[in-house]
Amino acid sequence: xxxxxxxxxxxxxxxxxxxxxxxxxILTANPVGSRNISKxxxxxxxxxxxxxxxxxxxxxxxxDHPHTxxxxxxxxxxxRVYVDSLMEPPxxxxxxxxxxxxNLNAHPSYETDDLLKITTxxxxxxxxxxxxxxxxxxxxxxxxxxxxxxxxxxxxxxVVTIQSGLIRTITLELDAEIxxxxxxxxxxxxxxxxxxxxxxxxxxTIAERIKxxxxxxxxPIVRVFLDSVDRIFxxxxxxxxxxxxxxxxxKQPEFADHEQFQSVIELIENKxxxxxxxxxxxQTQKDDLVISIGKENQDEKLSEYSMITKEYKxxxxxxxxxxxxxxxxxxxxxxxxxxxxxxxxTEELTKxx
Length: 353
Description:
transcription regulation; 5-stranded antiparallel beta sheet; DNA binding; transcription; elongated; WH_DNA-bd_sf
């Protein structure tokens, strides 16, 4: 979890008022006034005292004061303190967990691809935010085996199984006809020379490793492997992310504003922004749960959003599960949902191996 360290020390009364303001703002999406806090929460303070404390919190940078309203709204700094120390501990009730488990277990034969898409839908429906799941990066994964299936006299299907359990398939066109028995021989030879190597190693050394095969007899298959090595053994999953939940996130009152509406549509259509931010988080954050609020996202297009992400694993490979939505969100519930779903996804993918 990202934490902002600074030299402030909020008093207990300031913490309580900040917590109540954020609670109310999350519930109503409207600026919160001192009279509202006084009526809603029995804290033994007059509206005037509460108003003074809110003014102090604004001066310290935890609250802001919209020009058109007498109430206050949280700033990025206010949300950060709330998430780090003031909100209720993340909790997901048993019934919600059962619904998640039932959906993930509905079809045990799901391919990895399908499971990631279903996970994204579950997370978006549960949180009413934009949900995303990145595919695992396989650049440093090790090859377990290659299978070659003859589709026709000039077409083959290459099935690449990675040691983590992931499977990739690529169809290749040959420039000459091939016999079934030649395919089996080349498959055996390739597995002897390449199994156990990282994709990056295979790309840089394949020509040397298979140079002594009888190229006259097996030339069409060997040639297509050499010509297609970047396609077969490149981390094509690095630019893949499933993003779902446009209908859910657009229900939020923040998107009644046309400009905000357009911004979220742009994010959904241009997934590169999301991928770039998630990759940066992976590289810079040691914790597998990361919460970034507003300008902490370091991309101007995301300055009005919060992102909550957690890693899931398939063997030694990692992907990311997460949500993105307005900064005004139920952090406790959503953090719990992201963590639980990421852990359950890891469990489901482990079963498939």
